[in-house]
Amino acid sequence: MSDMQYDAIIIGGGHNGLVCANILGKKNKKVLVCEARENCGGMVNHEIINYVPSVPNSVSQSIGGLNLKYIPKGTIALSESGKHIRLIGNLHLDHATIAKFSTQDADRYLEFHDKMSQFSKTLGKFMLDSPPRIMNNNFSDYAKLFKLGLNVRMLGKKRFNEFARMIGLNIADELEDNFESTLLQGLIAHDSVLGSNLGARSPGSLINLLYRMAVHGNSLFGGIYEMEGGSESFISALLEKCNRNSVEIKTSASVKNCLIEDDKAVGVELHNGEKFFGKTVISNADPRSTYLCLLGAQNLDTDVKRRIKHHRSKGRVAKLSLELKQMPEFNDCDIEDLNSRMVVSPSIDYIEENFNPSKFDKLSSEPVLEICLKKDKDSNPSLDIQVQYAPYRAHGGWENIKEDYVNSIIKILSKYSSNIESCIESKTFITPDDIEQNYHVSGGHWHHGEIQIDQLFMLRPIPGAAQYRTHLDGLYLCGAGAHPGGGMHGISGKNAAKVVLGDL
Amino acid sequence: MPKNTHDIIVVGAGHNGLTAASYMAKAGLDVLVLEKNEWIGGAAVSRELFPGWKYSNCSYVCSLLRPEIMRDLELYKYGLQIIPYEGSATMMRNGDYYAHYHDHDMTINSIRRHSHKDAEAYERYSRDVLRQCKIIKPLLKMTPPDLTSFKPKDLFGALEFAKHFAAKDELGGLGEKEIYDTIRFYTMSIRDYLDEYFESDITKAHLAGSAIIGTALGPCSPGSAYVLLHHYMGEVDGSVGSWGYSRGGMGSITKAMMGCLNDHGGEVKPSSEVTNVIVKNGRAIGVATKNGDEYYAKKIVSNLDAKRTFLKITEEKSLPEDFVERIKNFKIRGSSGKLNIALDGLPDFPCIPEGDPGGGGDMHFTESIEEMEGAYDDWKRGQWSRNPYVDMCIPSKSDPTMAAPGKHYMSVFIQYVPFNLANGGWNEERKQEFGRHIVDCISEFSPNFKDLINHYEVRTPMDLDSEVGLTEGNIFQGELTMDQLMFNRPVPGYAQYRTPLKNMYICSSSTHPGGGVMGAPGANAAREVLLDMKMPQKGNYY
Fold first, then answer.
1. Is A89 an interface residue toward B (CB < 8 Å)?
2. How far apart are CA A348 and CA A31, in angstroms?
3. A 418-477 near B (Cβ less than 8 A)
4. Among B266, B268, B224, B257, which residue's Cα sits nearest to residue B65?
5. Residues in chain B within 8 Å Cβ distance of A166
6. What is the model's pTM?
7. When comparing pLDDT for B179 and A23, which is higher?
């Protein structure tokens, strides 16, 4: 075709979109990125993210290395009694810390950590590559499946059996079998359900934790960082690369729909009427928007339409940002503690009580919190608080209940910090609804879709669309909705680029 | 040679124990079954606890009992008769009702009253679920392979298992999509699963009931869709998914099994509670009972659940340490209670029109998944559900042997009831309070119900534990979650009905394929015992 201008048009300039664009650009492909917002970066934004894992080597190498600086963060589980648990990801030190609470727990923690980290490594190799399809009669897919089976088998008989048991297990059972400290149970359970639509007692929450560990250096409490210059510096680094790889970027260019000719994606049309044509179209948008808005229901088979309509992508995490007049004081915490990741999740039952109403989009007055204190030399400190479970489209409508909810969060905070109320200067509260609105992610879900077995691996986002290709020729997915999911590591972007390059 | 020597001793005369015993007796072995209660049957019993009324006071309806077992053991010859029932109904607070019938078209019409879309979706739904039933059916008869072993038997077993998962459907479709659907079915919550088909709350609530009965899962818990299968895969007279009453109560099933056992020279000794397994040189050689007797045998087969088998009657030191640890962590949680009620007449349920076959089977009054999940949330807190899910039926409507003419027996199954009741546990007073609460709940839908009550028996998980011997009162002898199914049941590595202790076997519902009055674990275990004894094998389980 004569008007074919680009090799690839990427819809959405989130980190996955930019990673994908860079890899393609590096291979001298002509790439255009259309971003609806004024700036690229999508959800990689301090408004949403508190802590990040380090970007995996495989990703940064594939775009020629990223110069990012990470500040490691410890974790502190707050307790009303002041007996907080502080963990930093160093097994030796963490063992000593837990031993102060219970020597049995400390020993068990090492065993538990060893087991989990081995499993996350085994699964991680599989998780971070593109997933194989089954019954595809493709040799490399079978080889991949065989390799996974072999890897699992190589764990040894005992571990193999344990692995088979743990895949569908809930985290609460495993923690209660191992530990006696309810605070430690609460803390680990918190990390297992973070960002998901599961409670600690929901089967499948354990695989959620394994996924998290695979991204965070196979460690429970290590591998948690703050990026120097904020998580946005990841985006600026990517943009700089884009510049070098001559990737064209259009901001404030919201795509209306994907152009289709002869059952093939040939380009995009913007809301302002502009049209761009390319050999491939790669969507960094979430699967639901990709299918229902960009493609349009009229272009889908009934079966595909039904599946995408039931793709589960309702967010459950809100963010409360408090601008403070002065440094707050937290009970029995020193300045070191304030610099750590502070978690309010005193027990499994606390999480569960909080999770119960959220199943039907209602709110609990005692949410689970992950707190991050930000303090620059020249500005006032602020608290960024991740609040779970704050359901998408909450019952009663967020605009009506927001204020009470925020007050109840502050009430919980004041259990741990006596002067917090007097420190607050202003509050901003971002609900999953706001994330949907402002970041164009339907459902406002962190991972663009639940991380549960029926939406993982070859089933992610929906059966038939796995492996980054959608049901339409020439249209690809590169966002967190594709395998392996979100978490600011750019792997889906990288894997998608590989698939697209193969097809080009 | 010591006295009291037999070929086989089976511990516990429940339906699985009797099934295993009968198969082995039929193969020509000398089998002795020891039962702790004065009566036999375990959880499949009919008992006259109030003069004139027979209660199926544990399990109450029949469908899962494998037809092959009925044929192999000629249970019909020994008096077993299954009476299929016509339908089921959910009553609504607005006076309406929702019903399913034996007849597919009637069901579709009934659903259409509530939602046209759901009526259409039901066709798709029943086809998909039926497909899952077909996939699992051959697996019920198989011993799960040990995936860590490289023995040809296990490798072929694993292939065989995989083959069935990729089973062809009627149209010959054997593909990616079908396998994905199976994976999803095994891992999803029933709520998410039903959401893919139906729109109206009442349809979903009615169907979701089957996915939570007996489990410690709620309708929102991933994995609950699979439990649905445990209530769908059964059949009555060749009709898949239907349910029926056993004539004369559930005790007739175990009575028929005992008939078969006796005919083949086997013996059941009631009132003989086994206290421990006698171990010599690392082998099980016999058992000792509470009344001081000792019995010896070549093989011991336990029909007790995994916890009782390995933690109570077997000495810890004769088992590997990590195995004991696993068994200790085996999830077996009581979540159900029961009321058995002797009624002076048939109670009115004004919601259901008179003569509607929907009222002939199980009746419910949970109108939405949200209500159901709320009931589960209460249980998680250690309380009985304030607004419980009940599965109630009146077997005497179709089976006149349960009560005198004009009188009726009603069975009410209640989900969820905790084993460990918060604030002090169960006592007689709280048990009665629980019973009154359920009666009140039912009275809301039946104005004359209370006046008709002659007597009722309240069963809490505590009673099921102490009387029937189901640990924590779990009716499946172990949770039906992914971590405890197939090669993981009861624990990974020991899913082949053998135990770490030589000559000791387990045949209870704690093994594959799990609970329900199914008999398959018993039949599978008998096969493994006979294989090890190099005995001739006959019947459908070989």
1. no
2. 48
3. 452-454, 458-459, 463-464
4. B257
5. 483
6. 0.92
7. A23
